[in-house]
Amino acid sequence: MKYNKIFVTATCGLSLLMSMSSCDDWLDIQPKGFTIPEKYADYEQLMNDQSLYRALDVYPSMITDDVQFVEKGTFPGFDLFEYYNKSEHFKNLYSFEHGQVFTPGNSDNIWENAYSNIFTYNAVINNVLTSEGGTDFERRKLYGEALVGRAFEYLNLVNLYANHYDPATAGSDYGVPLVLSEEITGERYPRASVATVYSQIESDLRDAVDNYLAETTATTFDPNRSVGYAFLSRMYLYMGNYKEALSNANSSLELNDKLLDYKDYKAINGQWGRLVAADDSGEEFPDEHKNLENVYTRVLNGTSNLFKSVAASEDLLETFARNLPADGEDMRMSLFFSKDQFDPYTRPGNEPNRFPGYTIFAPYIEMNIGFSTPEVLLIAAECEARVGDKDKALAHLDKLRDMRIKNNVHFPTTYSKDEVLKMVIDERRKEFAFVGLTRLIDLKRLNRESWFAKTITHSAGSEGTWTLPANDLRYIMPVPENVLSFNDMPQYER
What we know:
Blueprint: H1 40-47, E1 54-55, E2 67-68, H2 88-94, H3 109-127, H4 136-160, E3 174-177, E4 191-193, H5 194-212, H6 225-239, H7 242-255, E5 265-267, E6 275-277, E7 294-296, E8 299-300, E9 311-312, H8 314-321, E10 329-330, H9 331-336, E11 337-342, E12 353-361, E13 371-372, H10 373-387, H11 390-402, E14 405-406, H12 417-431, H13 438-446, E15 456-459, E16 465-468, H14 481-484
Parallel strand pairs: 1-8
Antiparallel strand pairs: 2-9, 3-4, 5-6, 7-13, 10-14, 11-12, 15-16
Helix pairs in contact: 3-4, 4-5, 5-6, 6-7, 6-10, 7-10, 10-11, 10-12, 11-12
């Protein structure tokens, strides 16, 4: 995979930072390096670290209603999505186990990588404006990008490891440790409230958008002002502040509203590179940093544990079938999933993997979990359906679906606001199936509304059936056990 940036790979979290020889036990990360840099070029190098462009992991999807595993021996010769074959933390999440998710000695990569990245962003935020070299514009631009990066990590952390934002309880709900310094002093980090973490995210984003982010950037790895507005729209959506979410979504769309037409592509045999131009020109589906609808690129970790090893639930498949024209074809299903069998081979004479009656997730493309035009459109559509003009919400849906569905038919304006809202939520689910935290966060936030609240049921044949009621604390990932062994943080009793 090729990028338009020069990456500097850090071997265990941070480079060119503080001198230290031991890890930070309180957060179970291991910042390391040399001394605080003095030159702008050093901070630019820090921000080009490849580790900053990968985020999250695939395992939160295992809690959701999108996934299906089967019992051992269901498909001889193809056991990738059999329950017994999954990692312990996958099985613990899928079966809605209480307490810890990771077994002793196993790390939670999302927690560790996020805090490692936060220390890097802190080093830039706290020092780059007074560094030597570079122009004032370059220093300020880098400062703004680091603010967005830190906010990105914290919004993920607080939505994964904490109760969903509720204005009535956010001030007392446990959030995550809020670390704003790059210096490791050995002190413990208290668990800030959900409200405090959100306040910091909002402050960072407002500062970045109002004062520092450039109108355009050279690559989608670098956030610009459109990204800042998109980020604010996501944050306010999660907070239930639909008026502000809509305003910022509209501001983002004014700067960037490009969409990729999925109807221009088809799936062929093979794995990586299996999505190609429908006109047989040889062009492949664009890499994540070249995809015109990606406004901020962050690549999902752990995709090898997802592709061809997770089946779509019946519930998800029913969602794809809803509101599909009689002669329509949803290209998200056609391109990213395989039904009944998957042929990874381009050579003749090789038998495909067969799994009759199931549909597996197998896009074999890097998955962007940053910000994209489809997400901003769907935020605008949801907010219009809730507090604005439902006809505008339908127009947003039609615009996206025209780029996703062959023979799409536009929705009539006779639908009620509630009906439009439900269609928007379905569209979010289809657009972001198995992508990062989107579905999990949607479940957490929407379960508080009676029209949506649902109980999820997972099964794996004779190996078990498990249920997760709406608003159960098992939607919340626990702080990792190896962090708790050094720090008596308060916990959710999941």
